[in-house]
Amino acid sequence: MVLNGLPGRVEKNYPLKQLTTWKIGGPAEFAYWPNSAEDFVLVIERAKAAKVPVWLIGRGSNLLISDEGLPGITLVTTSLRAIRWGDYSVQVQAGYPLARLAQEAGERGWHGLEFARGIPGSVGGAVIMNAGAHGGEMAPQVESLSVLTTEGCRRTLERRDLEFGYRYCSLNGEAWILEATLTFSPGDRDEILHIMGENLKRRAINQPLEVPNAGSVFRNPTGDSAGRLIEAAGWKGRGIGGAVVSDKHANFIVNIGEAKASEVLALIEEIQKDIQSKYGVDLQTEVKYLGKLRDCP
């Protein structure tokens, strides 16, 4: 057994909807919370040798998991939270909450993560998708990354080794992030905290935080807003089963009660077809899918 003798929490047939902000997903054959980067690497090595599939989950935002669940081992990084503060820099493991890191940097008067105060994901997930909001994004803060490649090699990558774009990092699908070194610039503490407070207020007003969701579903097309297009097409309040387009923000699909992954995907497809038909725009999703999704149309 791949997980035998390893420290950390192990659960069999664990309901993955408990680990996602959408509250959607079938069971994990095995869920494992490694206590250290070494445990993480060892599991990957063992699973690779045993040809057991491995899936990675951080804090479960921006994520849709199959109704069938996930075979093999689901690695949950939320226990990987070691952090070392330096001189306007921080070394932080992948499972550390991004919003907490942003607040702590702000309390120090460090500028750079004001945009991230309300983002519910982990540091690793935020870097791998170059998460952003309020005109900011992760890329400018990244100095280096400690990663495990899909071939099983541990590497340290400098900023120059990486490519970033809109919700894009060249590591996606190529490596797992173990630790990130982020850099900051000096700022005015009170101003930084004020900006973060204002960002949180706008988030509460404009986003459906009171119901399960995965953040923005679609990427904004060049020069336009996905939410504006979806609202203009009349999709607010419409849905399939328990998956409904939010009345508060049209680029959010909310789970109003026991929504299934198949319903979310069907709704996404209907929206994409409608927007393409009406406006000639090909909406691309931001959300990441895990599982075979054989139960989805």
UniProtKB/TrEMBL annotation:
Keyword check for Zinc, yes or no. no
> What enzyme class is recorded for this protein?
oxidoreductase
Specify the FAD-binding PCMH-type domain's residue ranges: 23-187
Location within or outside the cell: Cytoplasm
What pathway does the annotation place this protein in? Cell wall biogenesis; peptidoglycan biosynthesis
The organism's superkingdom is given as: Bacteria
Q: What is its EC number?
A: 1.3.1.98
Q: What biological function has been recorded for the protein in this entry? A: Cell wall formation.
**What name does this protein carry?**
UDP-N-acetylenolpyruvoylglucosamine reductase
Query: Organism, per UniProt?
Result: Desulfosporosinus acidiphilus (strain DSM 22704 / JCM 16185 / SJ4)
Q: Which gene encodes it?
A: murB
